[in-house]
Amino acid sequence: MAAKREFRDRDDAQVAVLDALVDRGREGMTVLELRAAVDADIDRIEGALSALKDDGLIEIEHEGDRVLIHPADRVIPDPNDDAGERSVFDALRDRFGL
User: Fold this and answer.
1) What are phi and psi of 2, to 5 degrees?
2) Domain residue limits, the chain
3) The model's pTM
4) Which range, of 34-38, 58-62, 63-67, 89-93, averages the lowest pLDDT?
5) Which ranges constitute the DSSP H helices of the chain?
6) Do 13 and 45 contact (CB within 8 A), yes or no?
């Protein structure tokens, strides 16, 4: 599942982080899990996380020794809403890096 369309006009690393978090659902992810899921170096992932946190698009949860990162509720598309579906343009844009 991908983040809502209105959040897809951000930096590629930010979109990839949001998509990975949304795909994981409510479980959240650690930074190590994000590194494995996102095709970007750690500096870009850290920059993406910082920007997303500043914009209120992710939430950080401390669970004992673990730090979990969750997408904000407003980023997660409603599965019953057709507007959350990827358009052909979205697929082409992602494929060709437009």
Assistant:
1) -110, 160
2) 5-96
3) 0.77
4) 89-93
5) 12-24, 31-37, 42-54, 88-96
6) yes
Cβ pair 19, 11 in contact under 8 A: no
Query: What CATH number matches the domain at 5-96, 3.40.640.10, 3.30.428.10, 3.40.50.150, 1.10.10.10?
Result: 1.10.10.10
Question: 34-57 burial by CB neighbour count: b if 16+ within 10 A, else e?
Answer: beebbebeeebbebbbebbeeeeb
Tell me what the mean pLDDT of segment 47-59 comes to: 95
Query: Using CA of residue 51, residue 43, residue 38, residue 64, what is the dihedral sign?
Result: negative
**pLDDT per residue as tens digits for the range 7-44:** 788 899 999 999 999 998 788 999 999 999 999 999 99
Beta bridge partners of 71: 58
- Residue reference for tokens 């890096």: 97
